[in-house]
Amino acid sequence: MSDTKPAIVLVHGAWGGGWIWRRILGPLREAGYEVHAVTLTGDGERAHLRRPDIDLHTHIADVVGLVEMEELDRVILVGHSYGGMVATGAAVKLQETHPGILAGLAYVDAMFPHSGDGWGIAHPPEVVEARLKAAAEYDNGLPAPDASEGFAVSAEDAAWLNRRHTIHPFGMYRQTFDYDESLIQPLPRLFIDCTDPAYPTIAPVRKLVREEPGWEVVEIATGHFPMISTPDELVAHLRGFADRLSE
After folding, report:
1. Which part of the chain is the AB hydrolase-1 domain (predicted)?
2. Which residue among 81, 148, 229, 246 is the active-site one?
């Protein structure tokens, strides 16, 4: 442990961008944390860079590049939704190339892959079929769902999300990720479970984090976008985790 506050790197999910964390950036920075919100290639303000060959490794390189260029030390990687895949991959890469740089990992209603898993591997067949069909129509991209349906955000916030969401690169959807799990196991790991309503595709991870050792699990009674619907609660959990790693 250290009395130096770790830096926090926020990794958005599919269709998002660094913009999605806007409501929690100020409170975390006011608490004394250096905070960076990456935008993955092909999403957000980088949507003009979307191309068919973007895959998980492209997005891992986005996060690793930010950590290296900002010369961060004692980093907490925070992944939301699909961003949990990216945060895990970036953690593995950083453990290999910069041992000791990571302080912990936080997953905000996010995917967590064991070695050999992938983003869409455990999705129900009907979900996979619908997404493959959509990707074929959008040049290997995945259009965003309507944020007003099933995400427990206000009508105003749903409209805000719908305006900003972009088509997400699809190359990583059926891609598996093989890695040395021993690189992740020693790291403190927090899972923030958004339970009302619970986002269906996160169900396998909810089960996993309650059955396997090494996880701290907390719940927020909100939908899949707590940085939008309950930012104060999300900040409190992230601050608590980061504060404990600073002791």
Report:
1. 8-236
2. 81
